[in-house]
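User: Hey, quick favor. My workstation is busy. Could you predict this chain's structure for me?
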Amino acid sequence: MDLEFAPIVKYAVIRECLGKWSGRNECLENHNLMFIMKGSCSMTVDGRSYRLHEGDVTYCRRGSDREVGESTVDAEIYAFDFDLIGADSLPLPDVTHLDSLSVFMRDLKEFFYAWYLKNDGYELYCAGLLMMILSRLLCPGSEKKPNRHVKKLKEYIIEHLSEPMTVEELAHVVNLSPVYCGAIFARSEGMTIREFINFARINRARDLLAVDSMSISEIASITGYSDVFHFCKIFKRVAGTTPSEYRRLHAH
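Assistant: No problem, here it is.
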């Protein structure tokens, strides 16, 4: 999923509903994100009604007509109002239910710690934390924990992209047999080790083609391909276009 945007936090609050609380009907001036941490409440967005419970996350786009209805006395809600640079809205439904909020807790707590202290630069820091929170909502698969051998392999590959690599050499890095090493990698990542190497190398080549004036053969060499024709073949397979066409379309 290609997502190019940046949030600007306008307002954030932890709302603890010690008594029954309901919000007014309003047309939102900013995008809004709410985490239902405890209890429940009702919400209507552009005529669609929901009953929200612990673990629900709501997203309302700028311009939505929203009304938060009566909540339970134990309700606790983390709410964010934010603007977006680079996007009109986010590809999120009105309500997303999470089986667990644990993966978000560290960033949520750190966000409000910084937001309420308001030290120098807190706006930028909080925007970065909100970006992490949104990325976890938009790309939940990125939170899976890989096998420790697979993690070490991926780190090694990224650090040595310009160097020749064989499966046998990589298996030695994690002290596994080449067959078993390849099997656990494919099971974890859904691709072979060689496919992952090509994917990472071509992603690096994309960046260089977009911003650097080096020749295609130089970029091929830097990204680990000694044969420029082989590089072009792999690039088209991965990126769907030739390096020259990619540079023409994406050069900055």
